[in-house]
């Protein structure tokens, strides 16, 4: 019956993986806000004298078929890739919070109907939905954001609904009702903030996920089109020269992997911490 | 199996001639990450006798129990001069050789049978698990042995139950299945860690009888418990643990009835019962209660008429949880509702608080409509009735500090504070009233101890200055000494403020200590009601009689 409680601080110890993730995300944030700090070149400067150069001191990631510096393009592409990731995740969250709260609070018939719709939407492949939207609206940054956002919303919505159902069982919700707070006050003061807690971490995970999806779409030529330096678009552009200049695929691909890993690792750490604090 | 009578269990307690110790522990020390939780304790267990290790949370008693089966846990450091089982050294065992001993020579019964049994496996397979692990018999013979074992521990229809999953069984049956599994290989030593803590009184009595029977067959039992009255029923010898040390150790009659150590005395005094009514439970403050405010028997603050609550289950079958319950709670009075789990007492409390709408019947608050009002009309008078829940942790928003929780409650009260300074002053006064100080203002409830949290819960309930406080198992999650402090606090507050309590508990001792009148509930109905002393001394209903016989208690000298 005597559980040995871990000291509170022990949970806050930084693991090396967390430190690396934070550093990677910090570099990405710099690239996002001030790409000029990380490179002095122009991402769109064409130099036909030096096309398809392999990586070297002067061109860290090599150059592409138009002689543009690949490293510079990756740095400038952060803004577009992250923009899509943030935008799509934010859109997904807004949809998820609205649907999840309506379903979780209404219960009964409304909940059943909404949950079934969400189940169907969840089973519907994101890629297919994206293709459909792009077929209608044509490929553009906005369309990719909307497509990925709507595609990932049902998963989050189900989670929000679960959170709402979980939190509304909590003793403090009943205690607050017993003090004479109105239903709305209880939702605003206790239910909403507590149900939202795990979503912060989920968002971090979601951004990484959205970046991967958007890159996939771009690689298929359905996302942001070249000459945009969006990471997926870089992959698409480099495809033609893959046998002669493989770095055009490998290096941007690695950047996507490292960025997603860092975001995911950070998201997991946040998740564990928040869960620890909630106990 | 015939259920052993009280005489049989008494016979098992007759002191046997001292023989060689079966399990002998000398100077046992256990540390977790440099923090020593067991600080050099020694004890012996003899065949056919029960040693009880008693203590409160954090005393190191459960760690001791786990160490005896080699399951101290990760990050632990165990040192001992001697851990011997019948002359065999256990102190230096590897995990592998432990496995040969666990189950065969030493059986282990844990507190919570629901988490200790694998939910996905049939009860029979779980019971036969030790046989399988130690390669005894064939699959078919193990299956029939499991049924025999279930029958031996008094499980009705053992062949049916063996095919069910643990969650399909009641708590009492699960605990018996766990004991059946522990005695499957007829171990010579049985270690039972809080074997009856999660159980109702009547089921608890059956489990204790079962352990007594095992003892009379020659098993050495080491029972870990926080409950001295449970110990009185089974143990021959008691060791009282506190902060990793044994402070008192001796034959059960000595320790429980002629305790020497101050801590043992304080623990015994802290147990509420019929003898403690009108006195304080915390030792050293044994002054009688202050003059109590008179009960106004002409003014029913709560009056409940013919309440019933029917829930429709997922199988579309209606279940009547509360069935035609009526009562009155007078100004300044404590009305106790006692019953076992599933008796409908918590639902009754929820209806009285107007948080659960009754299917039929109504409750009036101070002579005016209460549960029949619309939520909007009810809200302005909510401040007149407050609530304290069992689990003081889940009843606080984890993001809020103690100060914010109390300010929020004050704002909903009869006299909302008009300024921040006033709010702060009154919150500090509330904290002092419940025995805390201003230094707790900025604490998150998460960081407080169980007793402190329950004090904050009481302060929150009192903040709106209610006339009625519904206390739903307010001390059930607390250690006995903390429970004593909280019960003392509640009686003091009643004397000071004249507040009425609707006091709900499964613990008959607590109910008798606190209540003026009581209702005994079973299966949603009130089976008996009346003056607390009268009901306890002369119970009329067979169920109440059964409850009181099953209640382990200490005979006071």
TrEMBL record, chain A:
<feature type="transmembrane region" description="Helical">
    <location>
        <begin position="12"/>
        <end position="34"/>
    </location>
</feature>
<keyword id="KW-1133">Transmembrane helix</keyword>
<protein>
    <submittedName>
        <fullName>ABC transporter permease</fullName>
    </submittedName>
</protein>
<keyword id="KW-0472">Membrane</keyword>
<comment type="similarity">
    <text>Belongs to the binding-protein-dependent transport system permease family.</text>
</comment>
<keyword id="KW-1003">Cell membrane</keyword>
<feature type="transmembrane region" description="Helical">
    <location>
        <begin position="245"/>
        <end position="266"/>
    </location>
</feature>
<dbReference type="Pfam" id="PF00528">
    <property type="entry name" value="BPD_transp_1"/>
</dbReference>
<feature type="transmembrane region" description="Helical">
    <location>
        <begin position="82"/>
        <end position="105"/>
    </location>
</feature>
<feature type="domain" description="ABC transmembrane type-1">
    <location>
        <begin position="78"/>
        <end position="267"/>
    </location>
</feature>
<dbReference type="InterPro" id="IPR000515">
    <property type="entry name" value="MetI-like"/>
</dbReference>
<dbReference type="InterPro" id="IPR035906">
    <property type="entry name" value="MetI-like_sf"/>
</dbReference>
<feature type="transmembrane region" description="Helical">
    <location>
        <begin position="117"/>
        <end position="136"/>
    </location>
</feature>
<keyword id="KW-0812">Transmembrane</keyword>
<dbReference type="InterPro" id="IPR050366">
    <property type="entry name" value="BP-dependent_transpt_permease"/>
</dbReference>
<feature type="transmembrane region" description="Helical">
    <location>
        <begin position="142"/>
        <end position="160"/>
    </location>
</feature>
<keyword id="KW-0813">Transport</keyword>
<feature type="transmembrane region" description="Helical">
    <location>
        <begin position="199"/>
        <end position="225"/>
    </location>
</feature>
TrEMBL record, chain B:
<dbReference type="InterPro" id="IPR017871">
    <property type="entry name" value="ABC_transporter-like_CS"/>
</dbReference>
<dbReference type="InterPro" id="IPR050319">
    <property type="entry name" value="ABC_transp_ATP-bind"/>
</dbReference>
<dbReference type="InterPro" id="IPR003439">
    <property type="entry name" value="ABC_transporter-like_ATP-bd"/>
</dbReference>
<dbReference type="Pfam" id="PF08352">
    <property type="entry name" value="oligo_HPY"/>
</dbReference>
<protein>
    <submittedName>
        <fullName>Dipeptide ABC transporter ATP-binding protein</fullName>
    </submittedName>
</protein>
<comment type="similarity">
    <text>Belongs to the ABC transporter superfamily.</text>
</comment>
<feature type="domain" description="ABC transporter">
    <location>
        <begin position="23"/>
        <end position="268"/>
    </location>
</feature>
<dbReference type="Pfam" id="PF00005">
    <property type="entry name" value="ABC_tran"/>
</dbReference>
<keyword id="KW-0547">Nucleotide-binding</keyword>
<keyword id="KW-0813">Transport</keyword>
<feature type="domain" description="ABC transporter">
    <location>
        <begin position="302"/>
        <end position="548"/>
    </location>
</feature>
<dbReference type="InterPro" id="IPR013563">
    <property type="entry name" value="Oligopep_ABC_C"/>
</dbReference>
<keyword id="KW-0067">ATP-binding</keyword>
<dbReference type="InterPro" id="IPR027417">
    <property type="entry name" value="P-loop_NTPase"/>
</dbReference>
<dbReference type="GO" id="GO:0005524">
    <property type="term" value="F:ATP binding"/>
</dbReference>
<dbReference type="InterPro" id="IPR003593">
    <property type="entry name" value="AAA+_ATPase"/>
</dbReference>
